[in-house]
């Protein structure tokens, strides 16, 4: 077995990748980092750090939930503020992707028409329905998890693994639009994708009181469904598809965590 090239690994995984990932996926007031331009290394190579971003966002939102709970707020109210925190921290970019995909995938009859609708900033009926259902589902699930005193780990698992799913879809599908954000970002590559997925799996395995294989299976199925729909509808992925992947996978994982509180884990 060949010994890994340490220099190659250092080139593949750099501390700056974490800063790039946070700058792309969050609206946190980070200090400005000046990085030299590297034409040979697309920004997507930093995608291995996307799950780390998810962990940090989950911990911040979870801290808000814990603080409000200790102040005596009811679970539904706490869940609303936890969800609001997650949306604000990410700039609602994933919600925007879900809405655009819903409008484009089911509002157009051809690939070109679907891509045109997805690029339009106007939200349609399908997008509104998708957003409302997504927010309601996450609010309900978070509220139930607060009641079960299982909020923090559920948020960490869902937020981290759903962003690992983004990387997998980004690498496994070609870009569908040549002038979009996803095309400019590039492809993460097999190594970055493997590390992102590994981080997501490790977090799932470390989560106490949860069936790791069930959660991993849920994440895979959710991401696979979005991937296959995108492949069929537009022949690849865009930034909107990646946002939809994150939303659907997060909902699937929160659902799994909530179901396990009611005995699903006891099923062989």
From TrEMBL:
GO MF annotation list: adenosylcobinamide-GDP ribazoletransferase activity
Protein name: Adenosylcobinamide-GDP ribazoletransferase
Record's bilayer topology term: Multi-pass membrane protein
InterPro entries linked: CobS
Family statement drawn from the similarity comment of this UniProt entry: Belongs to the CobS family.
Residue intervals passing through the bilayer: 48-68, 74-92, 121-140, 152-170, 191-207
Pathway: Cofactor biosynthesis; adenosylcobalamin biosynthesis; adenosylcobalamin from cob(II)yrinate a,c-diamide: step 7/7
Function: Joins adenosylcobinamide-GDP and alpha-ribazole to generate adenosylcobalamin (Ado-cobalamin). Also synthesizes adenosylcobalamin 5'-phosphate from adenosylcobinamide-GDP and alpha-ribazole 5'-phosphate.
E.C. designation(s): 2.7.8.26
Enzyme's top EC category: transferase
Alphabetically ordered keywords of this record: Cell membrane, Cobalamin biosynthesis, Magnesium, Membrane, Transferase, Transmembrane, Transmembrane helix
Species of the source: Sulfitobacter faviae
Catalytic activity: alpha-ribazole 5'-phosphate + adenosylcob(III)inamide-GDP = adenosylcob(III)alamin 5'-phosphate + GMP + H(+); alpha-ribazole + adenosylcob(III)inamide-GDP = adenosylcob(III)alamin + GMP + H(+)
Subcellular location(s) per record: Cell membrane
Cofactor(s), names only, from the UniProt record: Mg(2+)
């Amino acid at each position: 077995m060949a010994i890994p090239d340490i220099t190659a690994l250092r080139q593949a995984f750099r501390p700056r990748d974490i800063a790039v990932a946070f700058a792309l996926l969050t609206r946190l007031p980070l200090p400005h980092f000046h990085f030299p331009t590297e034409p040979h290394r697309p920004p997507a190579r930093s995608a291995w750090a996307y799950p780390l971003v998810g962990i940090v966002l989950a911990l911040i939102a979870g801290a808000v939930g814990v603080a409000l709970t200790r102040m005596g707020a009811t679970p539904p109210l706490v869940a609303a503020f936890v969800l609001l925190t997650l949306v604000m921290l990410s700039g609602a970019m994933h919600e925007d992707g879900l809405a655009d995909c819903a409008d484009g995938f089911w509002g157009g009859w051809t690939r070109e028409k679907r891509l045109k609708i997805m690029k339009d900033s106007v939200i349609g009926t399908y997008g509104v329905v998708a957003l409302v259902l997504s927010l309601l589902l996450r609010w309900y699930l978070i509220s139930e998890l607060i009641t079960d005193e299982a909020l923090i780990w559920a948020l960490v698992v869902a937020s981290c693994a759903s962003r690992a799913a983004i990387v997998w879809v980004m690498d496994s599908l070609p870009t569908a639009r040549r002038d979009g954000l996803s095309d400019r970002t590039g492809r993460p590559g097999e190594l970055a994708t493997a590390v992102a997925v590994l981080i997501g799996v490790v977090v799932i395995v470390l989560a106490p009181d949860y069936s790791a294989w069930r959660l991993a299976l849920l994440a895979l199925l959710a991401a696979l469904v979005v991937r296959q729909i995108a492949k069929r509808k537009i022949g690849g992925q865009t930034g909107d598809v990646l946002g939809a992947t994150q939303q659907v996978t997060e909902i699937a994982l929160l659902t799994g965590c909530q179901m396990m509180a009611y005995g699903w884990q006891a099923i062989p």
